[in-house]
Amino acid sequence: MPNPEAQPHQHRSRTRPSTSAAVSARTAVRDRVPLRQLLRVASVASGIQFGWALQLSLLTPYVQQLGIPHQWASIIWLCGPVSGLFVQPLVGLMSDRCTSRFGRRKPFILVGAASIVVAVIIIGYAADIGWWFGDTESNRPWAITFFVIGFWILDVANNVTQGPCRALLADLTSKDARRTRVANAYFSLCMAIGNILGYATGSYSGWYKIFTFTLNPACTISCANLKSAFFLDIAFIAVTTYISITAAHEVPLNSSGAAHAEEGAGESGSAEEAFMWELFGTFRYFSTPIWIILSVTALTWIGWFPFILFDTDWMGREIYGGDPNVGLTYDAGVRMGALGLLLNSVVLGITSLLMERLCRKRGAGFIWGISNILMAFCFLAILVVTYVANNIGYVGKDPPPTGIVIAALVIFTILGFPLAITYSVPYALISTHIEPLGLGQGLSMGVLNLAIVIPQIVVSLGSGPWDQLFGGGNSPAFAVAAVAALVSGLIAVLAIPRSGAQKARIHV
Description:
This protein is mostly helical. The protein has helices at residues 7-27, 35-42, 44-65, 70-76, 79-97, 106-124, 126-132, 141-173, 177-203, 207-210, 221-247, 255-266, 271-281, 288-319, 329-362, 364-392, 402-414, 416-434, 441-469, 475-495, 498-504. The protein is globular, with a radius of gyration of 23 Å.
């Protein structure tokens, strides 16, 4: 058992070599990276987010069309947070120490992008593969099996790619505050562009007419549209990944830097042991502000994840009154939900460009808190719209009234503002407060990722059965989300130190 009194000194001695290795790599990078190069490097975020948009808008409805009941749909999404719990922190640490001649981050980005391509092919052809293995229209065990396999590969690949993308921009901008702000703005902008294109693709119902070969007895219209959208995703991620990795001129860790990193890991055991120790062992050194930031992050994602899981399903089920396996009403609602997410992404992109100014005037913690309170009111509005829709009496009979649809789209659109804050501010705050611990950029993102994926696991396990307990709709999960968002917003406004917020704004 290690001596607790000796741990702070041991931790500093262990992390100092890793930090010096990272600094030695950064000093070889040019002091000021051209803006055009930063934009090209950030472009891979568009490709990743394009696929995320399709995944978020189409896959929850699709998995129900394959025959998985609504109460179990959230369990399918469990793979994302479970893989993120281990994969993203481990990849972050490995990329911090990678000595490849191609650079520290680019190999992981390339492998992750290639894995995404494999995953979407499996998902898109799950129904066809199941048909080859003997599935019928009413019984699709093989299709469900291959869908789940592809889904797991997709979530692991996303986690492999995301962390190194953010860390790469941090490496290129080093300690240039202006370039750091611009890089984060470009990254958020590219994410918004990917979302807009992905949701626009998901909201269009005629892809099967363009890619006619996707339609067959095993794959109906909704399946063919999904498959076609994934073909576009493959092309887009291939182009953006090529642009990004050819633009990023990384300087590999030199042999001395690598030796130092290995020496640092050796002081606490093997590289694997060092990973677990550095990730979880650093918790004992966290200050109160760090725990507050992690707590607010966890509550924020308890708020976001039910919406992410069920946004388009809510539109198809509660607003349009459809059923995943009956008629085309549900599909029409899902497409309208994708349109709402497209509008959401437009607001996300605009807010990302204004992020620095907002945080400079009011402080990052305050802006985060206000955005979460706004998010809570939006979730309450979802409950109100659901109640009104159910009491008007049209559900299951006629198309929804225009006013109800507009109200739902307005809620989706407004939620783009707090989503932009969630994508940026927590990373800036945690980076500022954890920096004295000597963690690398990749592992720092992994620490914050724990506060994101653990709540997602809780929501994935609980939201489906919880909804089923209260009648099978999505309202109970949204009610929990509203409470979590409100509490997180109040904590952020009242408890996050103003000084820390002001320091963090230079990184947003």
